[in-house]
Design brief:
The protein is α+β, with helices and mostly antiparallel strands and 294 residues long. It has 2 domains: 133 residues, TATA-Binding Protein, CATH 3.30.310; 104 residues, Immunoglobulin-like, CATH 2.60.40. The protein is 23% helix and 39% strand. The strands form 3 sheets. Strands 1, 2, 3, 4, 5, 6, 7, 8 and 9 form a 9-stranded antiparallel beta sheet that branches. A 4-stranded mixed beta sheet has the order 13-10-16-17, with no helix packed on it.
């Protein structure tokens, strides 16, 4: 009798536990933030003259569970992804020497003979991100120049450093702060990635196994799978791009739309200044991966 009762209680417990795992949960913006899965890539190119090119990008995806069981799974995955991202962040910061804003959902970074740059997208407010960078860069010996532009939705701050001119550009869109930090080195870029005077060069590529369409300034470019996927690896790789994947632009703010078949289009607005070169890659799930190259 005792065995039957024990078995009955165990069965009831399993049923109750299974039912509890299926209990619907209310989405929680704090718990269900974009930290639960992470795509990471790092490339290292060494040239015969000793110059080195390093490129990093990482993309976090949001985990939004519908029930308790999925939330517990998201939490477990989140712990693993968090450890991975911290290791990645530490390596990137050590190698690049640039600070990285917290709670990022997407980041890209570049260290080449011409520039050190980092692009970060974070849900933190613009004022908080600006305060973080000002403090972190001051600790690194960067001196803020006069004439900073600070507005509710935008900020541009120039710096003087011992290694070259630095620039921080912030913008707020869709509840996300986009931060672009760069330090231009003394060495001039090669003709393969140098824009025309007072213009902007945008190079586009596709890192996915699907064809993609990218629209910039009302111009749509069809990118076959893996077309120009290594354009950010070095200036030589960028220089080999066909002219159809090079866009000459005046300085300004541009809306970019990326589309993969069967997936919702993703849009971003980016601000670019004269004499800058940018790479824009189609990343996982059609996410745009911008990298400042010069």
């Amino acid at each position: 009798m005792k065995r039957r009762k024990l078995g009955f209680l165990l069965a009831c417990s399993l049923v109750a536990a299974t039912a509890a795992m299926a209990i619907p949960v209310t989405p929680d913006p704090v718990r269900d933030r974009p930290t639960n899965t992470i795509h990471i890539n790092w490339s290292h190119t060494t040239r015969s003259n000793g110059y080195v090119d390093d490129t990093w990008w990482a993309l976090r995806e949001r985990c939004t569970p519908d029930n308790l069981g999925e939330r517990l799974l998201c939490d477990a995955i989140g712990l693993l992804a968090g450890a991975t991202s911290r290791t990645f962040e530490a390596k990137m910061s050590d190698d690049l020497g640039l600070p990285l804003a917290d709670r990022w959902g997407l980041m890209t970074a570049k260290n080449s003979p011409f520039i050190r740059s980092a692009h970060v997208e974070t849900p933190l407010g613009l004022a908080a991100v600006l305060g973080f960078y000002r403090a972190a860069l001051d600790q690194r010996g960067w001196t803020e120049n006069d004439g900073a532009v600070v507005e509710a939705e935008r900020a541009v701050v120039a710096f003087t450093t011992s290694d070259g001119p630095g620039l921080l550009r912030l913008g707020r869109q869709n509840n996300v702060t986009i931060a672009d930090l760069s330090l231009r080195k003394v060495l001039a870029a090669t003709s393969g990635i140098r824009p025309a005077p007072d213009r902007v060069m945008l190079l586009v590529g596709n890192k996915t196994d699907e064809a993609a369409d990218i629209t910039v300034n009302e111009r749509t470019i069809r990118l076959e799978a893996r077309a120009g996927e290594d354009l950010t690896d070095s200036d030589a790789a960028a220089g080999r791009l066909p002219d159809s994947q090079k866009i000459d632009l005046p300085p300004g703010r541009y809306k970019v739309t990326l589309e993969l078949e069967g997936r919702a289009a993703q849009q971003r607005e980016f601000e670019v200044a004269a004499n800058e070169t940018w790479g824009l890659l189609v990343g996982p799930d059609g996410a745009p991966l911008p990298l400042r190259l010069y």
